[in-house]
Model the fold of this input.
Amino acid sequence: MFLDGLDDLDQKIVRLLIQNARMSYSEIGQQVGLSRVAVKNRVEILEQKGIIEEYTTIINPQKISGAVSCYFEIELASETLTQAIELLRQNDIITQIYRVTGQNKLHVHAVASSNEELEALIKDTIDRLPGVRSCTSSTILYRIKDIKGLRL
Done:
């Protein structure tokens, strides 16, 4: 599958870290048959290669009162794409920006603290992007399935 480029031990280590990124090197070592030091070395190599990018806490905005999660599909003129991406990147409400297939399209995810903050994002940022050809948005009502990172 996706981990075919890793040896069996690295695959086991990565799977364990995906299940619980807070698992200690000792605990991982017990499960894969390596010493704590050997696991630490393997994890550091995976990090250096960019296979493991980060460890993070994921907050569910729907569990926070008033938070609004929204997706935008934005089509831009090709000559303004880079400038628009930089403007979006600078906005703290915007959590993800993806370049997707289609004519200069971006898929943008935002999490606002309220409907008012979302409206301000649309009015002050999205509507003012240079070269917008079209923009649609969808508000997320609730998560049904949300896999973070690599699907195993």
User: Anything to note?
Assistant: The longest helix spans residues 36-48. The helical segments are 8-19, 25-32, 36-48, 81-89, 115-126. The beta strands are 68-76, 94-100, 105-112, 132-139.
